[in-house]
Amino acid sequence: MVLFFKSTVNPPAVIYMGKDKHENEDLIKYAWPQDVWFHVDKLSSAHVYLRMPEGMAWEAIPEALLIDCAQLVKANSIEGNKKDNLTIIYTPGDNLKKSGDMAVGQVSFHNDKRVKRVHVPKRENPIVNRLNKTKVEREVDHEQERVERIKQENAVKRAAAAAKKKADAELAKTREAEKAARSYDNMFSGEEEDEAPQQSVQEMMDDFM
Q1: Measured between alpha carbons, how far is 183 from 176 in angstroms, rounded to an integer?
Q2: b/e per residue, 60-87, with b = 16+ CB within 10 A?
Q3: How far apart are CA 209 and CA 207, in angstroms?
Q4: What percentage of residues in the chain have a pLDDT greater than 90?
């Protein structure tokens, strides 16, 4: 089972975590590209994930949303919940590394430089209570969810590619029309320059007198 929470800060976002260490194994495996993993540093705790809204970068998570995630992690650590001045670590889901010799729920990182830290001075009950009021527990078919996500992502990519192709074609058409118009204008401009003013017979006779 997976526990889902809604952070109502700006911007609002979904936060989720596994109900037990076995569910955490699936979450590690099926984390989305926009998921960020949170955990208490050097202590046992829940694996908490933030599903970032579109356009958000994991290095620039707004402070209020970062605090929501950190407080939820602290509240779901048996030992960490009793302590003050904790460090919470977080990293993109695709930076989680799992090898066969690791215990259930245990992870490491592909790149330690992609791990950031946030300090939590103490538990903030108003934040934890607000998040807990939104908690929903449900069964998730991770593989089916992954297939649907990829299908939607591919549809968006195809639509974007088609829109770009159409825009490029319209731009090329506009440029061609502008080029043709400049060529047409130059043609008549050249004719006007080549034509010398014609004199009448009287004017030519006057020139000899």
Answers
A1: 11
A2: ebeeebbbbbbbbbbbbbeebbeeeebe
A3: 6
A4: 57
